[in-house]
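re: that chain from earlier
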Amino acid sequence: MSLFFFFIVNLLLHNIYAQELNSVGLLKPIKLDTGWNKILLDQYFENVNLISGVHADSTLDTQFIPDSGQLLIKSKIHHGPYGTIEFNYKGDAICWIFIHPIKQSITLSLNNNNYTSVVIKGQMNAWKSQELTLENGQWSYHTMLNPGRYQYLFVADGKEMLDPLNLKTAPNGSGGVNSLLEVETSKENIQLIPSITSDQKLYINTSQIAGQSIVLWNNKKLPYWQSGKRIVCRIPDEAKLLGRSFVRLYSSIGFNQSNDVLIPLQHGEVINNTASLNRTDWESQIMYFTLVDRFSNGNPSNDRPVVDTHLIAKTNFQGGDLKGIRDKIESGYFNRLGINTIWLSPISQNPDQAFQEYVNPRRWYSGYHGYWPNQSCVIDSRFGTDQELNELISLAHHNGINVLLDFVTNHVHQDHPMYKQRPDLFTPFILPNGQKNIRIWDDQRLTTWFDDFLPTIDLSKPEAIAMQSDSAMYWLQTFPFDGFRHDATKHVPTEYWLALTKKIKNEFISKGRSIYQIGETYGSNELIASYIGNSLLDSQFDFNLYFDLRSLLLDEQSSFASFVPIINQSLTYFGHHSTMGNITGNHDQVRYISLANKDVSLSESGIEAGFNRTIGMPDTMAYNKLSLLTAIQFSLPGVPVFLYGDEIGLPGAGDPDNRKMMKFDSLNANELNTLEKAQQLGNIRKNSMALIYGETEIVKAEKEYFILKRSYFGETVYCLFNKSNMLITIDLDVVNSINATGLISKKIYTIQNAKTQIQLAPNSYEYLKVE
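^ sequence. v structure.
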């Protein structure tokens, strides 16, 4: 009887802890702004009425308004970066971390020179033009900014110009440069490294004595002990009742934050083997983007290109479909790459006609890519059927692979029933000044149209939010998708993402179904981060990291030293254990391998290059440079993402030349070698806890080479990269290590006097595992 009672009690406790984690999730720290901050608690808690108490620490002022579910928060006097609030929710204490504002007052100026108007646009204002004021003979711009790097330009009397008073510049990703403002903070940092686990205790080493630390199990505050440069905490007994739970640790020295530590547990034990992870451990994802029409033609009977003499092959449907992707899953193609998440391009019905772009040179296109939906909840018959989609997802799940759907929220095609029946739910095409509201990406970010036949939905209107979010929910309700890739995220108001995520949490996540959402935003890290959180999206693609890495590797005069602040800024904004997408390329950009081969330059229009000349096969060096870029992205925290074809070095200029049909057969020697390298990297990443959950330390960044260290308890991987065209030899310090194995070369390295020597060929890399 007592055994039965014990079983029942444990089952009830398991359900309580599982429901709490499912309904609330791991509450991510929120960065506060100056003044009062408003938090809508119903976006985070399933039932606000079950909050019976809100208790803030001494660094925060709070006002809880139960009737509206609002929490007002303001930072008070503090001596470290963190403040905490504990909520009594369903009778349990839930701790939430808030980060105090550290913005600095910044002024930028431009000499008068008799300008009649001057504006600034840059990463500090999402590239939206802001007017400067004329003060004491100078045009001045005043703002408050977080520490970081900000690119910007002045526009004086309509002419773009660099800041003549600031000599610092940064590549703009298009062959030119922007002025660069660097807002710095203290150089004093603290690094946390989980070292050992023993007798249900966790031991975390610190590079300096921490001034403030917070330890959480899921969302519950844990006591800890600090002895010099070591923090010790005990895993609670309740953790044994859950299949998956997490310990998190945040520390600081002064006002500087440490790396955030994330430790996954399985029934209360630290996971030390990737075999214990599953496909919904989102940090362990390796993602692959398939442009459905251009990947694999599994069913030629559904081929139906648009019949229009204006179209050429590269702007028309080419026959790829869902069955083709299913066949490649069945063949093991994705498993051999280590892929556990497939992102499908949009599969909603697109028009059967060609349409002419509004802007010059007014070319004609079809909707082969899926981004012109004229029905939101119907599969395009050229891609397949409901049954084929269900079969694809079922087979993917059987192979341990998630499937994400690319959903188009911002706009529809002009033939869509929503536009025909409710034109009042769309943004105006003509602005009050008479200008056509088309492709004004920054100044009309939330209203601009992508083309004159693609009306933008006015998602500031509740009815439009309800209709569009219901369309997104249809795909999750009808098919067992694992989440979304959201198109054009930054062009959609935050209110929509709040509404959609709330529906997803209430209907699916609260009941134990894992759903992952990743967005697409080109802009500053601050803008990108503004769409990420428990009530919004899980992550976005880190385009800034990719663009800066691309510029670094393409420019022989550049130095890896310039990459250090870029990595650090990404970690600061998105965390050391984020699920941000680290891409090898993007279907809207020139293929990296064609830039590396100098077939296309960043200073020209990639689209024009793709239409006006043939982009040929790269040479061996370009393939090596592509593999090097891939290896760097696979070494960093976040989710590595293959653009289809990058695993073999598929060449291409801008859209649509970068969207060639995927090639699986008759690969040449360079393509086969590149594929083997991609498979090797995917499987190394898949099988390394250090590369998935390890802490990140930049060991050395010289002009030609870069060393990154990832550490997770007893596993350490050094990632070494050589971007030069020369063989280099590196003497690497490996203190407290007795074995060193090259995961890439398969070479055993000897260690003498805590050092080992590594040779790297031109444009190559090595992952060195030490124990």
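The chain has a mean pLDDT of 94.
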